[in-house]
Amino acid sequence: MAWQTRMTPELAQFIAERDHFYMATANAAGRPYIQHRGGPKGFLKVLNDTTLGFADFAGNQQFVTLGHLSENDQAFLFLIDYPTRRRVKVRGRARALSDDPALTRSLSDPGYRGRVERAILFDILEWDANCPSHILPRWDSAALTPAFDRLERRIRDLETQVRDLGGDPGEFEMSA
Predict the structure, then answer these.
(1) What count of other Cβ atoms lies within 10 Å of the Cβ of residue 129?
(2) Alpha carbon of 144 to those of 16, 136, 138, 150, 152: distances in Å?
(3) What is the rounded distance in angstroms from the CA atom of residue 170 to the CA atom of residue 176?
(4) Looking at the DSSP assignment, which residues form a beta bridge with residue 35?
(5) Is residue 24 predicted with pLDDT exceeding 60?
(6) Which residue range forms the structural domain that includes residue 160?
(7) Domain match, 46 and 103 both
(8) pLDDT (0 to 100) of residue 61
(9) Lowest-pLDDT range of 12-21, 24-33, 124-133
């Protein structure tokens, strides 16, 4: 698939489901830096077919990304969905805005505990979805908890059935 320059409905949906991404920048001398950005699902927002935005939360107070963007606005986003083994690469230009409270509020999630310091806008130059090779699937607790809850309920039901039949469910426990 060739690199694309405009948002598609599929890309917008993929972005809306992410709760993290990696952002790469470089200073004027080309010194690279990559930073993990996380927040509530959908915190990276599609603003139009060529622009993304997110609320920039208070972090480690190093401001490397901000320093780089002040010298060189070229940036790169790497978004990955581990369970489905999908990844998207987005190249563009980014800028930090501290003087637009309405924009910052529109990008914020009032239910999220992170303190918002500014808005970051990302103009898409090109993007590509790339192959799933070598992505090991990983699942978060939101995906695993319901499955474990179902298994635990099933185990309790089976233990009750064993007791009702006169057995001892503990008799079948395996030692570690």
Answers:
(1) 17
(2) 20, 16, 10, 10, 12
(3) 14
(4) 23
(5) yes
(6) 141-169
(7) yes
(8) 66
(9) 124-133
